[in-house]
Amino acid sequence: xxxxxHVRRLQVLDxxxxxxxxxxxxxxxQMTQSAVSQHVATLERAxxxxxxxxxxxxVQLTDAGFALVRHARALIARIGNAxxxxxxxTGRRHGRLRLGSFPTALATFVxxxxxxxxxxxxxxxxxxxxxxxxxxxxxxxxxxxxxxxVYDHPAxxxxxxxxxxxxxxxxxxxxxxxxxxxxxxxxxxxxSLTDLADQTWVGGGPASAWFRIVRHxxxxxxxxxxxxxxxxxxxxxxxxxxxGLGVAVIPGLAIxxxxxxxxxxxIRGLAPVRRIWAARPRDPFCPAAARAMIDTLQLTxxxxxxxxxxxxxx
Length: 314
What we know:
Elements: H1 7-19, H2 22-29, H3 33-47, E1 52-53, E2 60-61, H4 63-90, E3 96-101, H5 103-106, H6 110-120, E4 125-130, H7 133-141, E5 147-152, H8 157-160, E6 164-179, H9 183-186, E7 200-203, H10 209-220, E8 226-230, H11 234-242, E9 248-251, E10 262-266, E11 273-281, H12 288-313
Parallel strand pairs: 3-4, 3-5, 7-8
Antiparallel strand pairs: 1-2, 5-11, 6-9, 6-10, 6-11
């Protein structure tokens, strides 16, 4: 069977899977429902397999249909990207940028970068996608994103092993979060990880990227944190600490807006640090919008660091 001649039909099948109906796919693709049905029938004949479960509401794909769509999505995205790039090169389309980011970056330095970018590049269609690191990387690989703000650390080998073009933005040092009145908070000094070794911890789950970094560094310091409460919500981590339920070590960006009744302390000595990057698919052609956003992110991060330095000096 030859699939390359069926790209449009694969797009129709993907739209049916996303919309759950032939009529929804027809609306999304701006074609008639009859044309959608014909595309599916032609594809099923070519594959010699049923791809749709007839009589189900919403419409479900068969196992073969799901397998086909899973592989087709990356192909459809790549072709769409090619059309967009050609349109930009020839001037027939405005620039487009689909930017993905993890939540704590979106809550800190990214908004200022977006505002600056839109002032300078008002003709670019900008879409921002909020997702976690584990989902941003495959979405970048599959062509769903043009640029992603990601982070890495030796505890996350699956990140550094991916082949992306990356530009360094900043290093994010983790901070200790203590209940107000905690004996380590009363000292007014920085804390070390070993100071926290005998404490009850608030941490993330086993698959949590940020907490894998914390656990990796604690083990390098000679202990495993004793986690009693688990959450990947940074606000909840702070709330648990504020209630006196434990201590935590979380990324500096995550504690930029600290809750009342917590004390935040820098970590002296061995401390977890994640490196934050702007990453894009490895490709000799870098769209102008992506280049401009990378420059804007670097400028925003640099000017923010300079402003914080002046505040400390003042």
